[in-house]
Amino acid sequence: MDHGATIDSVHPANGQNVLYRAVELQSLESCQNLMKAGISVDIQDTMGDTVLHVAAKTDAPNILEQLVQNSIKVSSNENFH
User: Fold this and answer.
1) Residue 26: closest CA among 48, 59, 70, 72
2) How far is the C-alpha of 48 from the C-alpha of 78, rounded, in Å?
């Protein structure tokens, strides 16, 4: 969180916050800690994907469950296949 970054800071090139990376790495503990800290779970990246989509693509059922329990909007991207 150096250099004025906040927990919800997003990467300018892809629109992803740090939760996306935690999901990609399938780090349940990191995901839980970020959600407890109040990170936004419903933002969409530049491709229109949410962290829920990333969790589904990386086959991370435990993280999917945590995201749903933390009130993520399941229908954030209607074009998801």
Assistant:
1) 59
2) 9
Please tell me the distance from the alpha carbon of residue 61 to that of residue 65, in angstroms, as a whole number: 6
> What radius of gyration, in Å, describes the C-alpha atoms of the chain?
12
Assigned token pair, 20 = 């996306």
User: Do residues 28 and 66 make contact, with C-beta atoms less than 8 angstroms apart?
Assistant: yes
Percent of the chain with pLDDT over 90: 62
The structure's pTM equals: 0.80
Q: Write out the two tokens for 59.
A: 């086959």
- Using the predicted structure, report yes or no on whether residue 51 has a pLDDT greater than 70: yes
Total count of domains within the chain: 1
**CATH number of the structural domain spanning residue 63:** 1.25.40.20
